[in-house]
């Protein structure tokens, strides 16, 4: 029979951030714990499934309380609706809008389609790496624009 002070494996996480959040929750509750494989998975994420991910360990006597704490996911309190966000005639002046559909569901980043100019095409051939410009992308209709 294992002693209550022996260390046991409690949970496995494939992302180091999730493992650190669980470790922090347990330490905030007064349960000592530690992580293993964290550095290996952080440096080489493809090894995570092979090594079993980042492993969380606790003492045998704290295992049940730790599982209960990790099982309770706190739900953030709901906030009241913002009246200005429901006004149809008051669009956000800062957010860009899609010129095709008018949606504000737009992000700025690397272009998803080939938007090569002469110099970027030439540079892409020389570097053997696609050099794409940054553009706005509408997630509603798929339009890309500057």
From TrEMBL:
InterPro entries in UniProt: DUF2007, N-reg_PII-like_a/b
Residues annotated as domain DUF2007: 16-71
Coiled-coil residues: none
Protein name stated in the entry: Putative signal transducing protein
Lineage: Bacteria, Pseudomonadati, Bacteroidota, Cytophagia, Cytophagales
